[in-house]
Amino acid sequence: MKIIPLTGCLGAEIFDADLKDPAQFAEIKAAFTQFSVITLRAQDLTPDNLLGFARRFGPINVNRFFTPLTSHPEIAIVLKEPDQQGAIGEDWHTDHAYDQIPAMGSILHAIETPPSGGDTVFCSMGAAYDALSVRFKSMIEGLSAWHSSRHVFGASQADAESVTSGRVGNAELAIQDALHPVVIKHPLSGRLGLYVNPQFTTHIDGLAKTESDALLQMLYTHCQKPEFQCRVRWQPGDVTMWDNRATWHKAINDYQGHRRYMHRVTVEGCRLDAP
User: Fold this and answer.
1) Is residue 44 within a helix (H) or strand (E), and if so which, with residue range?
2) Which of 24, 114, 168, 190 is deepest in the core (most CB within 10 A)?
């Protein structure tokens, strides 16, 4: 197994690994803990193989809103057809931030990819936190923020292409609201990091709207600096796993006229605690 970092602060490519081999799991998990994003190249997997790998990390979190794979309901379909304009996940976000117990990690298996484009970009919430000034860190460490699924997956999105195309549904289940610390201590690494994101975070608890909006926008702008990011370019068979407690991610929608088809499995996490 060969592990090559993608950037100085985030992500790694892993070559010559076999996700079906339990004997390799400890080394893969260690890489996941260290790099937060791992891309395992050229995997030959069935849906059962993908679920078997995911279960070594923990129980599966079945997504409420994504269309499931008929034969394997624990697997969500991430799909964009050639005639569709919008890609799922184009905004910076953290999966399942709206849950009281946010998901630990998401695992995406590339089945069909466009000839070019369709990359996924990630950014490190630990690196973004480390780069803040000491005084700013002390100001935000006692704060908590609200996150919600309502405005993203609820009834207000009924006319969105992702809904009308059948890729996303169950708007009546979008009733989640969760309060999490703005700064968390990572459950695996112990590293401090930011836990707010542009898609699901609605406001900072106890602040006026103008105060909350200004503070969140400052953090969002700061987190999107290129030096905190890595980019994954997909090939069929690749599997990328990322830590939802340590990263943001977004899908790049630059492959109009081509199909992109993925299988996603999400692993349950734990409560997030402040430092």
Assistant:
1) none
2) 168
Closest CA to 112 of 8, 258, 9, 6: 258
Sign of the torsion formed by the C-alpha atoms of 88, 32, 246 and 122? negative
Q: How deeply is 233 buried, as exposed, middle or buried, from its count of CB atoms within 10 A (0-12, 13-18, 19+)? A: middle
Burial group, residue 264, by CB count within 10 angstroms (0-12, 13-18, 19+): buried
pLDDT tens track for 176-228: 999 999 999 999 999 999 999 999 999 999 999 999 999 999 999 999 999 99
pTM of this structure: 0.94
**Could you tell me whether strands 2-5 and 201-204 are parallel, antiparallel, or unpaired per DSSP bridges?**
unpaired
Active site amino acids: 93, 95, 249, 264
